[in-house]
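Hi support team,

I submitted a single chain yesterday and got back a structure, but I'm not sure I'm reading the token output correctly. Could someone confirm the output below corresponds to the sequence I sent? I've pasted both exactly as they appear in my results page.

Thanks,
R.
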Amino acid sequence: MKNNSHAACTTVLVGKGATLDGSTMIARNGDSYEVLVPKKVVVHEHQVLEKEETYVSPSNRFTITLPKERYRYTAIPDREDRYVTFEDAGINEKNVGMSATESIYGNPRVLGYDPLVENGIAEDCMVTVVLPYIHSAREGVLRLGAIVEKYGAAESNGVLFSDKDEVWYMEIVTGHLWAAQRIPDECYAVVANQSAIQEIDPNEKEHFLMASGLVDFIEQHHLNTGSDTINFRNIFGRQNVFDRHYNTPRVWYGQKYLNPEEEQDPQSNQLPFLRKANRKIGVDDIAYILDSHYQETPYDPLGSGSEAERNLFRAISLNRTQDSHVLQIRPDVPDAIAGIQWIALAGTFSPYVPFYTNITSVPESYAVTPLKLSLSSAYWLYKTIPVIVEPHYHAFLKQVLDYKEQLFSSYLGTLVEADEQARTLNEQESTDFLTKVTAENAERALEATRKLLQDLTTQAMSLSKLTFNMDKNL
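Hi R., thanks for writing in. Yes, this is the structure output for that exact sequence:
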């Protein structure tokens, strides 16, 4: 039951030993098959209900009873008046991050033995029924895994979890089977709509978690593809001609950026799941990967390669990227300021804006997204920039890069100052202060974007092809 409006993302996960400041980071592009699936940003307050509540998914009627206590959490749901769906990603008050989902596909052999369940859990509600109830990344894996085993899964998906110490990547491949791997502290991973996890060891529970019946399932149905070990990707994943044009090149480009010394084939089925970068990784490195479209290669759709090369592979960032996010949980700071959710609504040319997650509200421009275009809405304002930039990409590229880099630099300085001030405040004062700083960060990006749109639109008027130079005397 893969909802065709939400099924085309790219993921980056980075362990704390691989980042510049020791943060854990999980990140993903929320892509769709439609150009417009308006998104908004919300904060759900901490709640303690009088009794347990029954949740029913509006998409496929998946039903589950939820605990009475729900932790505060941020989310990026679809713009929808009737109900909250596809909450996409967030950080809860325990500083646990979750991003869902990376759509993947089990192969016909394994799905034949354990089909997907029509009214099982799906992407539309995973964040909603998991993130408010967990204290750690590992606990997130176990909660979602238990739900899959009990109720079944309607789709094959990859799900990201993080806390201050650990990063986990989980793959749900069939109706009831799943496995998860902890990303080693010194490693990163890039995933693109394919099963990515490779060798798993059921006895190494510090690094691997999996469905209770996974090993027996493999043995019962004679699924091991010729090895004494369990290669999860080879047994459960799919590797066909569409993957080699749609998926593996995105992994190749992410690894090329962080390990340029490695010579790899963009269509290889054997790209490693885990790598150690040749340098420490920052938020801006992850943003570069998620914003990318094969720059400085012949495969860039906006580049100078041949027409065949420019259309050979699916880019990482697309016009149908609805949001991109980096969930950063920082070490060696008070819990109240540890979580930052960097959010770029609407794709390639949008800035990543840092939202502290210990907040009570978000600015109206992010929280309210009209159904039709309105420049008072953050989503719609950012969506207009590519309309102006793409037809004049090379003329406007430097301006766009300068705009994004200047905003990012300013945010780094703002975060240092805000961190210092927040440390001096009590709990309520800190939350109020961080809410205010986040609103100011958001407005700074919107103001810069309005100015950019004004400048680019004015310049584009002189680039029209409907012009003709005549003798000035005629």
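A quick pointer for reading it: The CA atoms of residues 336 and 426 lie 10 Å apart. Let us know if anything else looks off.

Best,
Support desk
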